[in-house]
Amino acid sequence: MNKDQLKGSLDQVKGEAKEQWGKYTHDHSKEAEGKVDKAKGKIKEGVGDLKDKLK
Predict the structure, then answer these.
(1) For residues 30, 33, 39 and 44, what is the CA-based torsion angle, rounded to 10 degrees?
(2) Which of 11, 23, 28, 36 could disulfide-link 41, Cβ–Cβ 3.0 to 4.6 Å?
(3) Model-level pTM?
(4) pLDDT of the chain along its 55 residues, tens only?
């Protein structure tokens, strides 16, 4: 697992936590922020996968 994959995974976990907290507190902006963080994490993880394949 390279650095990009690790950061992507962490961003996805952080995003899921924010999204769940937003649902629990009925804070729609925090929920949306969590979804954005999860999407960014998936992209970073994909970049890391691509880097591994290119090596």
Answers:
(1) -120
(2) 11
(3) 0.88
(4) 889 999 999 999 999 999 999 999 999 999 999 999 999 999 999 999 999 999 8
